[in-house]
Amino acid sequence: MVEDEVINYAHEIGAGMIVVGSHHRSGLARLLSGETSVRILHEAQIPILVIPTIESK
Fold first, then answer.
1. Which residue segments constitute the domains of the chain, with CATH numbers given?
2. Average confidence score pLDDT of the chain
3. Which of 1, 25, 34, 54 is most open to solvent, judged by the fewest CB atoms within 10 Å of its CB?
4. Are 2 and 40 within 8 A, CB to CB?
5. Average pLDDT of the segment spanning 4-29
């Protein structure tokens, strides 16, 4: 899974933080999509910075 690759790479290079984007999904949409940034938040052992994306109209 993508989150495993991100976390493993962060550990390999000795990263002090992981920065990821978020699509502003909430509730059921987040549960169904399994948002990668949420999974990284729960699994990583280093600090995470989640940046919300700007949606174009």
1. 2-52 (3.40.50.620)
2. 79
3. 54
4. no
5. 83
